[in-house]
Amino acid sequence: MAQKKYLQAKLTQFLREDRIQLWKPPYTDENKKVGLALKDLAKQYSDRLECCENEVEKVIEEIRCKAIERGTGNDNYRTTGIATIEVFLPPRLKKDRKNLLETRLHITGRELRSKIAETFGLQENYIKIVINKKQLQLGKTLEEQGVAHNVKAMVLELKQSEEDARKNFQLEEEEQNEAKLKEKQIQRTKRGLEILAKRAAETVVDPEMTPYLDIANQTGRSIRIPPSERKALMLAMGYHEKGRAFLKRKEYGIALPCLLDADKYFCECCRELLDTVDNYAVLQLDIVWCYFRLEQLECLDDAEKKLNLAQKCFKNCYGENHQRLVHIKGNCGKEKVLFLRLYLLQGIRNYHSGNDVEAYEYLNKILLSNPQMWWLNDSNPETDNRQESPSQENIDRLVYMGFDALVAEAALRVFRGNVQLAAQTLAHNGGSLPPELPLSPEDSLSPPATSPSDSAGTSSASTDEDMETEAVNEILEDIPEHEEDYLDSTLEDEEIIIAEYLSYVENRKSATKKN
Fold first, then answer.
1. Are strands 98-103 and 83-88 parallel, antiparallel or unpaired?
2. Could you report the per-residue pLDDT of 139-148, keeping only the tens digit for each?
3. Residue 102: count of CB within 10 angstroms of its CB
4. Residue range 325-382, pLDDT digits in tens
5. What angle do CA 329, 333, 339 make, to 5 degrees?
6. CA distance 364 to 354
7. CA distances to 79, 105, 273, 384, 401 from 412, in Å
8. How far is 218 from 184, CA to CA, in rounded Å?
């Protein structure tokens, strides 16, 4: 697949350089059939690329047919207003994964989803559509969501089976149950994050004394976050953590909507935050990685922009040669894993674009031998141990969730810095620690007194609270135990992919030398 994408990109580049219009004579006749001159062109380009002539001819013909289809679609759109959407289907489908679908743009997202499901044999309620890096909203029209003619639509399935569910009722029932479970999980994620974001927004008591949520950049300087952006920041970080949890489980189809939501909320934060802390840059890598693992990288039109943005941010955060990071931590630490994935994705993107020389340069950065040791050698083992005294950053993380600062510090002492256990315990016990836990004298805190009317409630209210607690706990389960959790990776997948793409570019280099 990757080699075909390289060949398509390279041939497209040749055609553009030679100003060849395949949809016109002598490559296409008056009946839009292939002309004899295309075979000569394939011979010329196959010699140039040292590739199989039949394979080159086949790819050129695909490019020609697509150009004709696009031209026909453009004419049809101008005369009838019927738009063409390029639909990218999930990898499990054996049919052609790139398909054209005609539709009017005044229909709703729900109607488009139904049309896609009916046309390609999918189950309507268990697919999500991503267009322009956003989930398609079912209740709005395509025009309202900025969907235009010739747009790309990616179809995500909530089920993971490779079997054809329609051939077996039992499999179909299992897959439907799994898809329903995934959808409920997504809805609980949204609900849990909304609750946590609301708590964070309500943390400020005195606007004059504490008007900002403080976050430190990589130099230790505090970045002041206005209250109006606190909810957006909380949602952005929450969706990112949830998306990363799905990434670790390799559930890419469910991870992507979370990551795209995180991107949307991060964009509501101040520019200084996005440029000077690495969270937003890491998110850009995660989004591109997710598209790649879904084998839909071509649906992400701004992959290069996202990778360049990540590289610029890492440079701002860590210094040109990581000198700022070394100054703060004493070494480059596990942050090197971010650069490994960045260079790998830049290499892949360049290869898919036909730029084999640039691809080789990126894939060959500190990457050829034992990538695990590349970033683990200079890590400090002491930083992996939980500290007896809670860090201010971990206390702040619990405060952002709406918990009292003193109670948060006490909980972190009890659980030896484990943010996840502390948050779950506090959430389960109404924001305080249970009395049976062993506390030091300074941590012996009494929860705020409540009146009988505050504690009284109906059974339905109790049920609602239980549901909210369940939703919040599900979010908290994915909150990492330590601040560098996002850097922990075995790099097994990356190691395999690096070797795979290096073999592709090495083969191209060998062919070029022979030529």
1. antiparallel
2. 999 999 999 9
3. 13
4. 444 444 445 567 788 889 899 999 999 988 888 888 888 777 443 444 343 444 443 4
5. 125
6. 17
7. 66, 53, 27, 16, 14
8. 37
- DSSP one-letter code for 484: T
Residue 493: which of 355, 372, 330, 356 has the closest Cα? 372
Q: Are strands 152-157 and 83-88 parallel, antiparallel or unpaired?
A: parallel
Is the Cα torsion angle 157, 158, 162, 168 positive or negative in sign? negative
Q: How many Å apart are CA 218 and CA 226, to the nearest integer?
A: 20
Query: With the C-alpha atoms ordered 214, 215, 217, 219, is the resulting torsion angle positive or negative?
Result: positive
CA distances from 471 to 195, 416, 475 (A): 9, 25, 7
pLDDT per position as a tens digit, 27-45: 999 999 999 999 999 999 9
Q: Which position has the token pair 């990218």? A: 88
Q: CA-to-CA distance for 15 and 60, rounded, in angstroms?
A: 9
DSSP collapsed to 3 states, 194-227? HHHHHHHHCCCCCCCCCCCEEEECCCCCEEEECH
Six-digit token pair at 259?
A: 């990551």
Element (H, E) at 87: strand 83-88
Backbone angles phi, psi at 465, to 5 degrees: -65, -40
What's the pLDDT at 256?
92
Helix (H, G, I), strand (E, B) or coil at 397: helix
**Cα–Cα dist 303/299, whole Å:** 9
Give the integer Cα–Cα distance in Å for 428 and 325.
Answer: 38
Retrieve residue 228's tokens: 């109006």
Structure tokens at 489: 């990776």
Give the confidence band of 65 by pLDDT, cuts at 50, 70, 90.
Answer: very high
Inter-axis angle of helices 405-414 and 419-428, nearest 10: 120
- C-alpha 265/C-alpha 243 separation (Å) is 14
Neighbouring-strand partners of residue 156: 128
Secondary structure of 151-174 as H, E, C letters: CEEEEEECCCCCCCHHHCHHHHHH
Q: Rounded to an integer, what distance in angstroms lies between the CA atom of residue 379 and that of residue 241?
A: 23
In the numeric block, which tokens belong to residue 506?
């090495």
Q: Rounded to the nearest 5 degrees, what angle is found at the Cα of 12, between the Cα atoms of 8 and 15?
A: 140
The token duo for 418 is: 């484990």
The average pLDDT across 131-137 equals 90
Its pTM stands at: 0.66
Whether 340 and 367 have beta carbons less than 8 Å apart is answered as yes
* Secondary structure class of 123 (helix, strand, coil): coil
